[in-house]
Write a structure and sequence with these properties.
The complex is a heterotrimer of chains A (323), B (197) and C (592). Chain A contains six helices and ten strands, in the order ααααββββββββαββα. Chain A is of the alpha+beta class and 323 residues long. In chain A, α2 runs antiparallel to α3. The longest helix of chain A is centred in the N-terminal third of the chain and has 34 residues. Chain B has 197 residues and is mainly alpha-helical. Chain B has one domain: Four Helix Bundle (Hemerythrin (Met), subunit A) (Up-down Bundle). The longest helix of chain B is centred in the first third of the chain and has 36 residues. In chain B, α2 packs antiparallel against α5. The radius of gyration of chain C is 24 Å and the shape is globular. With 592 residues, chain C is an all-alpha fold. Chain C starts with a helix and ends in a 72-residue tail after the last helix. In chain C, α4 packs across α8. Chain C has a single domain, classed as Cytochrome c oxidase-like, subunit I domain (Cytochrome C Oxidase, Chain A, Up-down Bundle), CATH 1.20.210. A two-stranded antiparallel sheet of chain C has the order 1-2. The chains are: A alpha+beta (323), B mainly alpha (197), C mainly alpha (592).
């Protein structure tokens, strides 16, 4: 195999050299300066640029058409709706900008390609024009920034203590997730890597009374629909990132640090199966921060269900003390 | 830095005269950024650690500070001397500066020794971030100071060989700028470590 | 005998330990290209894996050997490849290869200097770069494999060999190589700044500098301010790894035991890293923008529109680049208020960027554009700068970033806006200044073909990645086939991989053209592009000192193209007026 490839490469190189030599000799014999770009050549490149514009937009449209329905389905969380509409607003700003500037770029590139009959216009600056394209983007950006930040502040505000909510701790470790529910007292017991032992893989301190009713699950965790969920994230070893794309939720898990995120799930798994038309649909928690060899396979299923179903499920789980 | 526009550069000496100082200054800027990286890191680390250990700096570090200020002054007088063509005074002052520089290093070592004797160590399970930073930052200052000491040695050898006079003292100036910078850097680090870290 | 000896010495100092900026530029370029090709081959390998996961490939088998049993790469070796691809492309190709090459070549030539401020430091800069490249390549062959924690080497993954094999010797060598690289980069930047500020020829005021020089100056300033901080961050990591400190480490349970480290924070590393990391983006991008500004103006036979606004916007970008690093850390649990501040500063960068784009468009408007390969790549750069730039508004917005952070959307964004733009700028520069470097011309037709293959295939690689990102696919995944969620995205991945292979093959056109033209290309005239700037007044053959006799004096800015008098005739009779031509009587100098 290697020999064949070497031979082929050599042949291609030799042929290439010969072709170039012949082309150059021909050009010289016709009295052309071979280094110069002729008007004709320049023109044909200009046509190609214009064709490229059409191709590029066509490629863009084809992708939207072909893959548009493969994007994430409608947001399954309350704040996610805000993010999605912010995304729509941003997209409806940047796509026209992208299209208009590209039309201008390639149209100018085509229209003003070299002609020996024409002179370029000496136009070196215009304060007015430059003011215009400083101010217009500034205004558009102001809108985007304000809209974005109002969303951001809402998302980042933790669930109030006195509000009804579910408190869950997500713990990442190479290469699996654990979820711990605060239980009836609504408080998570103390936990630290020093307490990790046997099945107590997230290091709960058994001497803390708050730990007793904590519920630890692996593989899959459940959420009640329309109830705020407050997540606390931790990591046992390296950095991970708890990414729940359907809920538009993501937060890094940092060893030695607690981070938090919260959202209100609004669509149950069952409803989402209907929305997507996919019988096998499952919500998923992924790791989205490079964490080692099996990073690509660090996942946990999420089930969103009615409050009654959720309560049944949580009651069927063993508490930390019972284990 | 002046932005002199020049017609022509004909000799290497001329080139050096025009560019050596700016090169040194920009080099100093990058060293400043290096240490600001670490001192900012100290602030970030301290902010994230409620149990941050406040370390009392050993007395030796205070002596070091005094020594390095004196050395800077001595060296500065050396530059004034050579500008007046007083070659012998330069020799004496440069040598004194060199002695001060070495005493500074010795004093730093004494400082580390007394820290160590008080159980404040740089690494391992007994160490804390506060102590690691303290050793690291002071040690890297000494590393940069060693470059200064080498330049002092070069300047003193050259001054004993009589290479400098009132028209040719660029080497002394360059070495002096760097030495002043090391002094200023130490004073900054000293107060930073004493009051902020 | 003695002549023979003398000749040998000559060779050594002319080609190897040269202090001539033109030779050092070529050394940077060739080393950078070799690294770039290695980085590209790596990307082809992991694209094969991503396009057809688990399938055996002869190429993978041959090149990766024991890291890929039966031609299928191991998951941690996939991570080695992406890490080394990123490191090599960002630092070795697009920092040293781009800015090292063109700063060295053009600064003395375009400002009218005999050489750099310090030829010796310049030579040292190259040799540190060379050494660093060698060490980085050696790290590919060590036990445990090369560094595998991503080019951003976040601890604790990068600090603990227990976490991934690549964090052993491979990571150590990475850190050594990068430290040497930083020294090289600093020595280079020092030289560039001082040369530009102090060694300009008579008449070359700051407002008569070509925009290339402005770009190199700002790049060097950013480098001097940000690279030391990366060194500071890397050293703390070295101490954590090897000397038992805990700057970045805390509360870690790995390999069945709790580590002794307490009190540190990986977030600290991210702060320090991105304080360099974001300015680094502009270290990569600004030289490319400078190069295109020069080429677009020359080839459209028109002055660059808004010269001062171009400088102003580059300054604004350089300044803002130091205030935006936090946008890489929106989801690290940072204070939401800080997140808001970083959103604000980040989106501000869009303003100077928009100014640059519109100024490029206006420069083309009513021009008389000659399409050399350099001109095509410059147009390509404007296109990639827009296409990749607009998605920055999505990623820079903290609320939107939550769901696209670390997904393929990011990969698409930065490969287009930074990777492609910088690569296009670099190619444009090589095609344009090749005659200055080698005294020969490159083949235009082959160059044009290279451009078309490159732009079509690279957009084909990176544009679809936005869709993967919006579908929620995380980056740095060895395969996307482990989730039912991503099963319907197989065809996108295959398409991307096919384009990647075409893109890689397309670069062979360039390689061939480059080698052929350097050795046998037609001899170049003194000023092939009929350009104004000073480098085209030097003799075609390289001489140490650049000009025979005195350095020419400069009388005007470099963008007097197609300047006409009141009768509509070209001033000076040609559509260009070299900077060395004195102003005519009654001629307006346009404020320069």
């Amino acid at each position: 195999m290697a020999i064949i490839i070497t031979v082929v490469v050599l042949l291609v190189v030799v042929t290439g050299v010969q072709i170039l030599k012949i082309a150059e000799l021909r050009a010289i014999s016709q009295g052309e300066k071979i280094y110069e770009v002729t008007e004709k050549e320049s023109k044909s490149q200009a046509y190609l640029l214009l064709m490229f514009l059409v191709y590029y937009f066509g490629f863009f449209a084809w992708q939207v058409y072909q893959w548009g329905d493969k994007m994430l389905p409608v947001s399954a969380s309350e704040h996610g709706v805000g993010i999605d509409s912010l995304m729509t607003v941003t997209m409806s700003f940047i796509i026209p900008v992208f299209i208009i500037t590209h039309i201008l770029l390639f149209w100018f590139a085509f229209k003003y390609s070299y002609s020996s009959k024409r002179k370029a216009t000496f136009f070196s600056h215009s304060n007015k024009l430059e003011m215009i394209w400083t101010i217009i983007p500034s205004l558009a950006l102001t809108v985007l920034i304000l809209y974005g930040l109002s969303n951001w502040n809402k998302i980042m505000t933790p669930v109030a203590e006195n509000e009804e909510h579910v408190l869950i701790e997500l713990v990442g470790q190479q290469f699996s997730w654990g979820a711990r529910y605060a239980g009836e007292d609504g408080k998570l017991g103390r936990a630290n890597v020093n307490y990790i032992e046997g099945t107590n893989f997230i290091g709960i301190d058994a001497s803390d009374a708050n730990s007793n009713d904590d519920v630890v699950v692996k593989g899959e965790f459940h959420l009640p629909v329309n109830v705020p969920v407050q997540f606390v994230m931790r990591s046992n070893d390296v950095m991970h990132s708890a990414f729940m794309p359907h809920f538009r939720a993501q937060m890094n898990c940092v060893p030695g640090l607690k981070t938090q995120f919260n959202f209100v799930p609004t669509i149950t798994t069952k409803e989402m199966k209907e929305i997507t038309g996919n019988e096998d649909f499952e919500y998923i928690l992924l790791c989205n921060k490079i964490c080692g060899a099996a990073h690509y396979n660090m996942q946990m299923n999420i089930v969103v269900e009615s409050k009654e179903d959720y309560e049944k499920w949580i009651a069927s789980q063993k508490t930390f003390a019972a284990k | 830095m002046s932005s002199i526009t020049i017609e022509n550069i004909n000799s290497k000496a001329e080139l050096k005269r025009k560019t050596a100082k700016p090169l040194l200054w920009i080099g100093i800027v990058s060293i400043i950024m290096f240490f600001s990286g670490w001192t900012s890191a100290v602030i970030v680390s301290k902010g994230g650690a409620p149990d941050w250990l406040n370390i009392n700096l050993p007395l030796a570090f205070t002596y070091s500070t005094v020594i390095i200020v004196i050395s800077s002054l001595l060296f500065h007088f050396g530059l004034i001397a050579i500008k007046k063509d007083n070659k012998n005074l330069l020799k004496i002052l440069v040598l004194l500066t060199l002695i001060c520089g070495i005493s500074f290093v010795v004093s730093q070592f004494l400082g580390w020794k007394s820290l160590y004797n008080n159980g404040i160590v740089a690494t391992g399970s007994e160490s804390t971030n506060a102590s690691s930073y303290l050793y690291l930052i002071t040690a890297f200052h000494v590393l940069h100071l060693l470059a200064g000491i080498i330049s002092l040695i070069v300047v003193s050898v050259k001054s004993f060989l009589g290479k400098y006079n009132s028209t040719n003292f660029l080497g002394v100036e360059l070495s002096l700028i760097y030495w002043h910078f090391l002094g200023a850097l130490w004073i900054y680090l000293f107060f930073f470590l004493k009051y902020i870290a | 005998m003695s002549t023979h000896h003398h000749h040998q010495e000559d060779f050594l100092f002319k080609y190897i330990f040269s202090t001539d900026h033109k030779m050092i530029a070529k050394q940077f370029m060739i080393t950078g290209f070799i690294m770039g090709f290695i980085g590209m081959i790596m990307s082809t390998l992991f694209r094969l894996q991503l396009g057809w996961p688990g399938e055996s490939f002869w190429l993978i088998d041959t090149l990766m050997g024991s890291w890929a049993e039966n031609g299928v790469m191991a998951p941690d070796k996939y991570l080695s490849l992406v890490t080394m691809h990123g490191t090599i492309m960002v630092f070795f190709l697009l920092t040293a290869g781009l800015s090292g090459t063109f700063s060295n070549l053009l600064i003395p030539l375009q400002i009218g200097a005999r050489d750099m401020a310090s030829g010796f430091l310049n030579m040292l800069s190259y040799w540190f770069f060379f050494l660093s490249s060698i060490i980085m390549l050696i790290s590919l062959g060590v036990e445990g494999g090369a560094a595998s924690a991503g080019w951003t080497i976040y601890p604790p993954l990068s600090a603990l060999p227990q976490a991934i094999p690549g964090s052993g010797l491979g990571m150590t060598l990475w850190l050594v190589a990068m430290s040497i690289f930083i020294v090289s980069s600093l020595l280079g930047s020092l030289n560039y700044i001082v040369t530009i500020l102090n060694l300009r020829t008579k008449g070359m005021s700051m407002t008569r500098l070509p925009l290339t020089i402005w770009a190199f100056l700002l790049t060097a300033i950013i480098g001097v301010l940000s690279f030391p901080v990366l060194l500071a961050a890397a050293l703390l990591l070295v101490f954590d790894r090897s000397f038992g400190t805990s700057f970045y480490l805390s509360d870690i349970y790995i390999g069945g035991q709790v580590l002794e480290h307490t009190g540190g924070s990986p977030i600290l590393f991210e702060h320090l890293f991105w304080f360099l990391g974001h300015p680094e983006v502009y270290i990569v991008l600004l030289p490319a923008l400078g190069i295109t500004s020069e080429i677009i103006s020359t080839m459209s036979r028109k002055p660059i529109f808004g010269y001062r606004a171009m400088i102003g916007s580059m300054m604004a970008i350089a300044f803002l680049s130091f205030l935006v690093w936090g946008h890489h850390m929106f989801v690290t649990g940072m204070n939401p208020f800080l997140g808001a501040v970083f959103t604000f500063t980040t989106l501000l960068i869009a303003i100077p960027s928009a100014v640059k784009v519109f100024n490029y468009l206006t420069t083309l408007w009513k021009g008389n554009i000659i399409y050399s390969p350099a001109a095509l790549f410059s147009i390509g750069l404007v296109s990639t700068f827009i296409s990749g730039g607009v998605t920055g508004l999505v990623l820079g917005d903290s609320a939107l970033d939550i769901n696209v952070h670390d997904t393929y959307f990011v990969i698409g964004h930065f490969h287009i806006v930074m990777g492609l733009s910088a690569v296009f700028g670099m190619y444009a520069g090589v095609y344009h200044w090749f005659p200055k470097m080698f005294g020969r011309m490159m083949n235009n037709k082959l160059g044009n073909l290279h451009f078309w293959v490159t732009i079509v295939s690279t957009y084909g690689v990176f544009f679809p990645m936005h869709f993967l990102g919006l579908a929620g696919v995380p980056r740095r995944y060895y395969t996307n086939s482990e989730f039912p969620l991503f099963d319907n995205l197989v065809d996108i991945n295959e398409l991307i991989s096919m384009f990647a292979i075409i893109a890689a093959l397309g670069q062979l056109l360039f390689l061939f053209n480059f080698l052929y033209s350097a050795l046998r290309g037609p001899k170049a005239p003194k000023n092939p592009w009929r350009a104004n700037s000073l480098e085209w007044t030097t003799p075609v053959e390289h001489i140490h000192g650049n000009w025979y006799g005195d350095i020419p004096e400069v009388h005007r800015w470099p963008y007097d193209y197609s300047k006409v008098d009141e009768n509509g005739d070209y001033v000076g009779g040609e559509d260009f007026i070299p900077q060395t031509t004195p102003l005519g009587e009654n001629e307006n100098d346009g404020g320069h």
